[in-house]
Design brief:
elongated, 15 helices, about 0% strand, single chain
């Protein structure tokens, strides 16, 4: 790999001419140029490489000149989108753990053993895992923005159903659907980060996204116990979850956009982006699907090919 020195990845280990031709940042050995030193590389010639503002960090991937390229979005738009993605990821475990403090109150209302009431929570957790596997190919097949909107809307409606029902059977079923839908951006969020930010920015931005859903299963029991102690009504805990889902939906409708940009298509052949709302609803993606997005079969094969990686097998057994 490219040698490291003083916490920089230096370009001296690879001939600089391998990169400056045709704006390449990767050579045939799959070694990627991450940092350049103008004083030592061929008299300071950078070719056509685009660098970060610090003057030496190579932008990976290299952005296009298209203002619609998410890499070219403004700092404000990128970070507002990052916040929305992180908040949506937050909802998965937040909604799941909201059922923990309320099982005794639910058991009293339905004349059931709290252990059996908790079956709904167990199923919800299972569906969080299954839903993540379903959402990975869907985000490549249909796009990020429509998945962001429709899964959040569905999750909000399923939460509402759980809140107002007086039947454990109905509650049990809709808790499963809550997990299936609200887990989406616990996995798809990583793709959005990679769409919008350069390689050298990934660690910090992924850290922001991850921090939201890492703290989420602690936050809903924390607030839920106070709500239950003060009101004695378990439904108010679920009204809280529903309210945050609705708040997220407002952010999505007002500010979200599609982060996927197909870099294999030249700028002059990119389909017109049209209205932002059409991209959020998924209509733009459907109209331009054939030439812009991967076939569903290919998306599913990519997912299953991941399971064949040597590192995955021991993790799955563990």
């Amino acid at each position: 790999m490219v040698s490291e020195k003083k916490e920089h990845v230096r370009a001296e280990a690879i001939p600089f001419s391998a990169y400056v031709q045709h704006n390449k940042i990767e050579d045939e050995r799959e070694e990627v140029l991450l940092d350049v030193d103008a004083g030592k590389l061929e008299g300071g010639a950078y070719g056509n490489l685009k660098l970060a503002k610090d003057g030496h960090t190579v932008l990976v991937p290299q952005p296009t000149d298209d203002p619609h390229d998410p890499l070219n979005w403004s700092w404000t738009k990128k970070h507002m989108m990052l916040f929305i993605v992180a908040l949506t990821a937050f909802l998965g475990d937040f909604s799941s753990a909201a059922g923990i403090p309320v099982i005794v109150a639910q058991g009293m209302e339905w004349n059931m053993d709290p252990n059996k009431v908790n079956y709904a929570g167990n199923l919800n957790v299972i569906m969080l895992g299954i839903g993540g596997l379903i959402m990975i190919p869907l985000c490549s097949w249909w796009g990020r923005a429509p998945l962001l909107f429709w899964t959040t809307l569905a999750g909000a409606l399923f939460t509402l159903a759980c809140t107002v029902t007086h039947s454990f059977t109905v509650f049990y079923a809709f808790r499963a659907f809550m997990g299936l839908s609200l887990t989406a951006f616990q996995v798809v969020g990583l793709a959005c980060v990679k769409d919008m930010f350069y390689f050298h920015e990934h660690a910090r931005k992924i850290g922001i996204w991850v921090s939201f859903f890492i703290i989420s299963p602690y936050m809903s029991p924390f607030f839920g116990n106070f709500i239950l102690a003060g009101t004695g009504n378990w439904r108010i805990v679920f009204w809280m979850v529903f309210g945050i889902c609705c708040l997220d939906l407002i952010f999505i409708l007002a500010l979200a956009d599609e982060t996927w940009y197909n870099r294999s298509i030249p700028r002059d052949q990119q389909p017109p982006r049209g209205l932002r709302m059409m991209r959020v609803l998924g209509i733009w993606q459907i109209k331009n699907h054939k030439q812009y997005f991967r076939p569903l079969g290919a998306c599913i094969r990519r997912l299953f090919s991941t399971f064949t990686k040597p590192i995955i097998v021991p993790i799955m057994f563990y």
